[in-house]
Amino acid sequence: MSLSHFTQRHRINRVINYARRHIADGLTLEQMSDVACLSKYHFSRVFAAHMMETPAQFVARLRLERAAGALVRTKTTPVTEIALTNGFSRSDIFARAFRKRFGVAPQQFRKLRWSGLDALDQRLAIRAQIYTPGQNVFSTPTQPFDVQIERRPEYHVAYIRHMGPYGDVSSSITKTFQRLQQWAKSKALLTAKTSFLGRGADDCSITPARFCTYDACLILSDFILEDDIVGVQTIPAGEFAVLRVLCGAEQANRYWDWLIGQWLPTSERTLAPQPSYEFFPEKGADTVNPEGGLEICLPVSKRRPQTKFRL
């Protein structure tokens, strides 16, 4: 019996979520097809049809992009450690794959950072397909903001996944939230106490826009089953740097850039390997221009002592 498009999509999303949690593991075709509850042959065909890349290409891309993000966001973690943490068996294998994808060595990529685009930065960004000449990518606030370190609980959520550029908040991502709200209303789940969160799992300065994913999520109080509209997943508990801002979702990217690019490097925290998200508190059904603003939640852990700077 053939699977519906919606069932296929949910199973592929389940594999993507699994791969992100287990990026340091082997992630074989057998493992991923088991997660999807499909044969290896059928899984490969379904995955490629939905993702426009093979499972092997997806895993290779995800590992490189995760490693690139770690290089940009941490000054002291050794390159070898970053390589091993993201599923590479040796640093030389990582270095060759990294140079092939980004055009520069990992150490050079780290030095460039993203604090303004000079000629070399532009070549790198264009190669990564996230920048076009004349685009003002790094317009971030410069003043300090009040960042709180908080322990956030585990959330069980219903979600709809959007794939495409994050900057398109006013259309595609907004429509995704609207679909989620319509679904919640049809299930009598939309009340004054309903909370939403949005989770962008990729770094849009590294991941090509066509592969960026954004999950529009509704926090559930009871267990539900997946249907033709929504999937279900669990957002893990953890420690977060929380920045409360009075703005709409369209302006949130500027504050994300400030939190990651300016606050994090000078704080006593480092980025933790779990999802970041935007939290829309109760009465937050308007996710474009929420009345009470939104909460930017960045997963962090205490920075370990370093005695020597290492590339």
TrEMBL record:
It comes from the Bacteria. The keyword Ribonucleoprotein does not apply. Keywords: DNA-binding, Transcription, Transcription regulation. Pfam families: GyrI-like (PF06445), HTH_18 (PF12833). InterPro entries: AraC_E-bd, GyrI-like, Homeodomain-like_sf, HTH_AraC, HTH_AraC-typ_CS, Reg_factor_effector_dom_sf, SmbC-like, Tscrpt_reg_AraC-type_HTH. Residues 13-112 form the HTH araC/xylS-type domain. One of its GO terms (molecular function) is DNA-binding transcription factor activity. This is AraC family transcriptional regulator.
